[in-house]
Write a structure and sequence with these properties.
Aspartate Aminotransferase, domain 1; binds pyridoxal-5'-phosphate; 3-stranded antiparallel β-sheet; 2 domains; 13 strands
Amino acid sequence: MYYDNYDIKHLKNIYNELEIEYKNIKAKNISLDISRGKPCKKQLDLSNQLLKLEMKIDNLPLDLRNYGVLDGLDCMKRIFAEILNVEIDNIFIGGNSSLSLMYDIVSIFMLNGDMCVNPWSNQGKIKFLCPVPGYDRHFSICENLNIEMISISMNKDGPDMDSIEKLIKDDDSIKGIWNVPIYSNPSGVVYSKEVIERFAKLKPKAKDFKVFWDQAYVLHTLTDEFIDKDNIIKLFKDYNNENMIYIFGSTSKITFSGSGVSCIASSVQNIEFIKKVMSIKTIGNDKLNQFRHIKFLKNIDNIKIHMMNHKEILKPKFDLVIKKLNILKNIGLIDFIEPKGGYFISVDTIKGNADDIINMCKELGLILTPTGSTYPYKKDLDDKNIRIAPTYLSLNELDIAMDIFSLSVKYVLLKKLINI
Ligand SMILES: Cc1ncc(COP(=O)(O)O)c(C=O)c1O
């Protein structure tokens, strides 16, 4: 670490300078929040056409205002089939949130079991594998449903497959694994083709083991390119595992995060099962919103152009954060991998400091995701990971936020070093 090169007198001088900076910032009564991955107003404005579309529904063969069409409009299915690279028959359209579909599916397995056989809740303690750091709300679903979580470390090309294969081989209480395979939340990791193939080949002891594949950021590139995806349902089928995979997606971060359209993609047999159990919960989801989205999004080529407009807004924000983080990284105070897409940057501080840094940011008016949020049970045993969400703030606000973050990292580490 950079500070190791200096004697105590010099360190105290640096500390005194940081203290002045701390007082100056504190006096400004700043109030900023980089805790959640929300699109900013400019991004939402990109889809305002959705609010202005003329909804000519009179001559359609189906009255969209009425009940029905549980699994969604075919044209909406076609759009998701293109986004996820699966077939139309593999799609079930949900309401405005893919997270709520994930909660539904895990609850259905708990209550009804796979294909309505042997509910998980009748099988004693069940467990999920959770690549970490990961998406806090996946972990909350498990916690809420009393599913034990086992952390799996995340490598540069996806989760540690050796551990996954070993664990599920002999333990039939392990029923599932969470994944965000493209631009993982929060690390930005993109699963390699080899890792994906190993998923498709898994041989779990539990016959009702499921792979949850959350494609929340599938088109959310920060470069000029999109990730090339194989048809993963087909890939799983090649290894006789086609009923093992459940893919989730939504337009939350394509159009409006509160009013988008969501979907599940899975084998035809699973989609039939989903329709059967979902028909108890609803007569159908919002077809008028689906219709609006069909007219606005049109097809994958048009959506890609739209996503490039998102990128134009987000790239300068990520660049700014990365520039400021690199200053800290170059002097050994933090580590991070530059993401090529998604909504987050995952920062590792020196062990034992994340909580103190987050608290100091809070004192200075900057809210970060609470310590441990990216880990099961909100416990980051190394107390080192901090998730940064650069999307929502303006560039000016982000500049101030990152100054607060940088100051807090330096101040906390130095304070400990000189024992104050
Ligand atoms: C990985 C991941 N999945 C799902 C969601 C939520 O998706 P939705 O808005 O479709 O419920 C988020 C939101 O931040 C996310 O990061």
